[in-house]
Amino acid sequence: MRQTRPFTRRVRSGPLHPEITGPGGEALAGQRGFLRDQLEEAGGACREGWQVLRRRGPDRVQFWFIALLVGIASGMVTLAFRKGIEQLQILVYTTHDVHLHSIAETLPWYWLLAVPVIGGLIVGQILHRFTPDGRVRSVADVIEGAALKEGRVEMREGLASAAASLVTLSTGGSTGREGPVVHLAGTISSWVSRRLRADGMTGRDLLGCAVAAAVSASFNAPIAGALFALEVVLRHFAVHAFAPIAIASVAGTVVNRLEYGNVTEFRLPEPGALNFYEELPAFLLLGLVCGLVAVVLMRSIFFAEEVAGRVQGATGMPRWLRPGVSGAMLGLMAIWFPHVIGVGYETTAAALTGQLTLGAAVVFALVKAAAVSVTFAGRMGGGVFSPSLMMGALTGLAFGHIATAVFPDISGSEGVYALAGTGAVAAAVLGAPISTTLIVFELTGDWQVGIAVMTSVSLSSALASRMVARSFFLTQLERRGISLADGPQRYILAMFRVSAVMRPIESPTAAPRAALEELLGAGIAIDQSETLHRAMPLFDQGDTAILPVIRADGAGEPEIVGALHHLDALKAYSRALAATAAEEHS
What we know:
- The chain is mainly α.
- It folds into 3 domains: 58-260, Orthogonal Bundle (Clc chloride channel); 286-479, Clc chloride channel (Orthogonal Bundle); 488-584, CBS domain Like.
- It is built from 23 helices and 4 strands.
- The protein has helices spanning 22-93, 100-104, 109-130, 139-148, 156-170, 178-196, 200-219, 222-234, 239-260, 276-315, 322-336, 345-352, 358-377, 385-406, 414-430, 433-444, 450-464, 472-479, 488-491, 498-501, 513-521, 532-542, 566-584, and strands at 503-504, 526-527, 546-551, 559-565.
- It is globular, with a radius of gyration of 30 Å.
- 50% of the residues are buried.
- One of its GO terms (cellular component) is chloride channel complex.
């Protein structure tokens, strides 16, 4: 360790300035000497601080620099994805999503039908060739990667999913672009984590940086992007993660603004008016209505996926054809309702500005829910955030038309209700009331009706979270058998393979072979490929402190390869819980 030079005082034999003499001069010389001493001590403290920074600081500073690079890369990939959608939409529909609905009304009916079918067939081929299960990766897989895979997501499948979502959103798929870009950014952070051989904590932080930058670059919403990564993906607000995620989020926003400028996605005609005390009960009721709408939307998607899976299994339909069938159904809807094509920002903007009647808002909401369900059922790719924004805007506008008609003297404009509904449905679907509220503010630039949005968001989130597994993404994982909604105490056991915790059979501390064979004969055993999540209930069921660990090849009798001790499993569980708590509170 390098030693710092000790501080010394320089003593002079005469006065500081020969011209200063007498009592007054001596006092002045003493003050200057004291000042010199203080400056030397301050300089020594700075030198010591620099040495500490050199010894301890570069790791963290270097990580912030890496977070900045990850943010820039994620922002650029997100921008490229968005530009790709725009160019392909111009190619097939002669315009991009801002005016897609208006242009689609003028296109021939056979074109509206054919484009989603062709797009679906292309998506089917992409997923069939490059994914083992024909499923598009999205935000739920990123959450799983953060919780169970040390911040890593699938690379090959993720790139294929991004390509499939790009085609889907360009050819009439009724989903959003936030899910694909979040997973695409996750592939960037996963690549960096593998190159750095990052541990789980660092990998999760890098994943959060990538997600924040992707959301910020997609919606020009830096505050919401950072909070989305913390609230939805990492699901904690640890202080150590905030700085790099904020840096990456700002970087993603800068990338967006260099291309599009400092503009919001939606523009309201004028700031909304709100009679705070008299009108708040209406926004409380709107929150409950939006919570129910969010639940209906989510359950419709899951129901459609189940039906599509059963139809595919019953008919023997090849999986590459499934997106094409959904494309045909979307094309038929688009002939009469071109509003369902693409992300739907034009219709959302029309709802926020009050340009739709009550009947139109209700019909468009129903058709949009059906179109989103059909798109997800066909595994065509895309996210759920933009559809939930559109559903919320339409629901809020319909509610606003009724509220202003029943109570015209105390009600504000319909646009305020549409804005509050936008946040309320989206927050309930995403399970992210904080970040969604801020996204709505940043998308519209209207901060004057914040109390209305927060009121509706709070009730919609509270209601919907009790009717599904907290959110759309966590419910998706729950349906795959991955339980993350109840916290780490549930899913941590799934992170440990039995083979990593067991004691080998040749170890003298394993267990007597005779005892293990007796338990195996009683049907009490665990395969070495299983996790502790599967093993822990067996200890209680068999009333034993030891489980035989077997290797079954399917050809003959299972072979005992080790013993899993209840105490070892509990120790591994305890250490993992402690590490998780330390990370979330650091």
